Amino acid sequence: MYGNDFGTPESQQQAAVTGESESFRAVLADDARVEPRDEMPEAYRKTLIRQIAQHAHSEIIGMQPEGNWISRAPSLRRKAILMAKVQDEAGHGLYLYAAAETLGADRADLLDQLHSGRQKYSSIFNYPTLTWADVGAIGWLVDGAAIVNQVPLCRCSYGPYARAMVRVCKEESFHQRQGFEILHHLSQGTPAQKAMAQDAVNRYWWPSLMMFGPPDDDSPNSAQSMAWGIKRFSNDDLRQRFVDMTVLQAEILGLTLPDPEISWNEERGHYDFGDIDFTELFEVIKGHGPCNEQRMAHRVKAHEDGAWVREAAMAHEAKRAARAEGAA
Ligand SMILES: [Fe+2]
Ligand SMILES: [Fe+2]
Asked: How far is the centre of ligand 2, averaged over its atoms, from the C-alpha of 202 (Å)?
């Protein structure tokens, strides 16, 4: 998923121990893929629907913070790039809703669950984009963290999800580079531009680390997801991977990460970093982030405004089907 920062799903894996058939176990043991028509435990199916749906919701809500900057991007070139990026995110949402449908989920129902707050989206999108540099910080850090989370999902045990991730990850790498390039440009610009880039990184650094979810000790559902081959690495392992990758890139950018405790640990072969304030994450998950209400209101309005498009598409399809029947 985009991140693991959705809070603990109350229904997840409550029936984890039940109903694993021989054939399902064999597929997992061979590290092969479970396909839509294969037998699978109900708890596996439910867990995947929820994860894929929340991933899809994150992709489409994630269009909002950056979409805000399309009309204000500093040049035509920047506008075109940003528009393409935001459009990619809509496409990611589309692949993912389609992947959830292969498990028998109904797309209208999933959107309903998003709009009524029963399913979450990644909390990172509840932070505001205050300056143009935020678009750079989101691409570099948020899409960067998403890649670290999503690359292992290319080997997820559920075939349609794994295959969707291959293309998504390729596009995310482009997003990460465009963010890096925006920050690099600003960092080499005037002192004011560099300060703007630094400020964006300061605000987005800690929320990006929180995208990997609560620490492993506090992440009760991970073990089952790992056993099912949905999740391949723990939250803390992925977070460490992200920090290791990002510290060097920050140096190239000439920007600092807002954590004085970051230092190379020779013994561990990794960078150490400071403690994360997870109370903030839990507050944002509960709906008290700076933009939760705004994001949901915008999403619900967009859905309502789009009702006529869905109706027209259904009417068109009904006519097409009737014509095909007439011809037959
Ligand atoms: Fe995406
Ligand atoms: Fe992206």
From this structure: 20
How many Å lie between the centroid of ligand 1 and the Cα of residue 111? 18
pLDDT at 6: 64
Cβ count near 115 (within 10 Å)? 15
Contact (CB, 8 A) for 256 and 250: yes
Question: How many separate helices (H) and strands (E) can be counted in the chain?
Answer: 14, 2
Q: How far apart are CA 119 and CA 141, in angstroms?
A: 24
What residues sit around ligand 1, an ion, with C-beta below 5 angstroms?
Answer: 59, 89, 92
| C-alpha torsion sign, points 66, 70, 74, 75 | positive
Written as one string, the DSSP assignment of 89-150 is: HHHHHHHHHHHHHTTT--HHHHHHHHHTTSS---GGGGS---SHHHHHHIIIIIHHHHHHHH
Q: What is the pTM of this model?
A: 0.91
Structure confidence by residue, pLDDT tens digits, 173-198 = 999 999 999 999 999 999 999 999 99
Contact 200, 257 (CB under 8 A): no
Burial per residue of 54-64, b for 16 or more beta-carbon CB atoms within 10 angstroms, e otherwise: bbbbbbbbbbb
Confidence class for position 218, pLDDT limits 50, 70, 90: confident
